[in-house]
Design goal:
Layout (H helix, E strand, L loop, with lengths): L26 H15 L7 H25 L2 E4 L3 E7 L2 E6 L2 E4 L5 E7 L4 E10 L5 E12 L2 H6 L4 H18 L3 H5 L3 H19 L3 E12 L5 H70 L1 H17 L5 E4 L7 E4 H7 L7 H16 L3 H15 L1
Antiparallel strand pairs: 1-4, 2-3, 2-5, 6-7, 7-8, 9-10
Helix pairs in contact: 1-2, 4-6, 7-8
Length: 383
């Protein structure tokens, strides 16, 4: 049977708990009892009201102290060496902070750390139309660094996206004003520099606080359908440039050698000129010395000149002894060959002395006239 069923039964658990007729607990009394118990720990007596008020003041102070401590501790932060901190006070820019351990009032200041030393990179690629209406695929990469942290953070909504769009626009502008052959071959450096200048102009107008460090032209290639033909054309241009470089190297090698030969020939010609001039002057001086002697004794001077001339001529020829007597058989002895061989052969002393005497007589010109006469007589007899 239920405890609240009509019939006079009163089984209410709240009123009959412990055998006493009680109602539901009073919340005010519960809180009073709790505060009284805590008041004992705070120095109060019993459960009186003053003790509760004392505990409430101390608890509030403790809570406020904890809140202040948490607020102070939460304000410490660290800025790394490569970063600069942008301080916003109630959402408005206040100042910059340098690297190190810093403190800020929480809920008043907010910090935006920005890396200003790292060099970042961004790539861009795509198919583009050139000035001569050809399609080319270009890949480039830009390297940049942040100069002004506040402008980089708040000048534009998303700085990376703005830079990417500006980069794409600069590439398409430069490629659209260039020939396809220039972009694929020799004009890459010019295109790279033009893209850098155009991108620098765009980001300066945005005032993004960025600086372009470098620009890399990674690749440029034609569409796949005509890639083989363009590869052949590029290879031909490379061969042409290689041949030009080889010709320049050959010219640089030959030119100094030719100049050296020219200088050597000029010096030899000058030496020959001086030698001939000096020889002519010597001949003139010699004839001038002979002229007085010739005037004094013409026959003697003529004969002496004749003999000296024959001596000079025969000194460079072979000496031959011809026997013009006998039965008509011509016998000749090569005197120079015999003298060359006598050192290695057993020639008797008397024969050797005779050969030496003949050689000395012939070299001194003592018997030059007789020798010439005998030779002329022998030739006449043979004839």
């Amino acid at each position: 049977m239920a405890w609240n069923e009509p019939g006079g039964n009163n089984n209410d658990p709240w009123k009959n708990k412990g055998g006493k007729d009680q109602g539901p607990p009073d919340l005010d009394e519960v809180f009073k009892n709790i505060m009284a118990k805590f008041g004992k720990f705070g120095g109060g007596k019993g459960g009186s009201a003053p003790s509760g008020k004392s505990f409430g003041g101390i608890g509030l102070s403790v809570i406020l102290g904890i809140i202040v401590a948490v607020w102070v501790l939460s304000g410490f932060y660290t800025i790394r060496e490569a970063e600069r901190g942008v301080v916003l006070r109630f959402g408005e820019f206040s100042h910059f902070v340098e690297p190190g351990l810093r403190w800020k009032p929480t809920f008043i200041d907010s910090i935006v750390p920005v890396d200003v030393q790292t060099v970042r990179s961004m790539a861009s690629s795509g198919s583009m139309l050139t000035e001569d209406e050809n399609v080319v695929r270009v890949e480039m990469e830009v390297q940049y660094r942040i100069l002004e942290p506040y402008k980089y953070s708040f000048a534009v909504t998303v700085p990376e996206e703005s830079l990417s769009q500006a980069f794409d626009s600069a590439i398409r502008y430069v490629v659209g004003h260039s020939k396809m052959d220039a972009v694929l071959t020799s004009g890459r450096e010019v295109a790279r520099q033009n893209v850098r200048d155009e991108l620098q102009t765009i980001i300066e107008s945005y005032d993004m606080g960025l600086a372009i460090v470098d620009m890399n032209f990674k690749d440029a290639r034609p569409p796949e359908e005509v890639k083989a033909s363009f590869d052949d054309a590029i290879a031909a241009q490379e061969d042409e440039q290689r041949f030009i470089n080889e010709a320049d190297a050959y010219a640089r090698e030959i030119e100094p050698r030719a100049r050296g030969q020219v200088n050597r020939m000029a010096q030899e010609a000058q030496a020959y000129k001086e030698r001939v001039t000096l020889e002519a002057q010597g001949e003139i001086a010699r004839f001038e010395e002979l002229l007085p002697q010739y005037k004094a004794a013409p026959e003697v001077t003529r004969s002496r000149i004749y003999i000296e001339t024959l001596e000079e001529v025969y000194s460079n020829t072979s000496k031959i002894l011809v026997d013009t007597k006998g039965t008509g058989n011509m016998m000749y002895l090569p005197l120079d060959k015999i003298l060359e061989r006598q050192s290695g052969s057993n020639v008797p002393a008397n024969i050797r002395s005779t050969l030496e005497g003949l050689r000395n007589q012939d070299s001194d010109g003592v018997n030059d006239n007789s020798t010439v006469t005998s030779r002329s007589n022998s030739r006449t007899g043979r004839n």
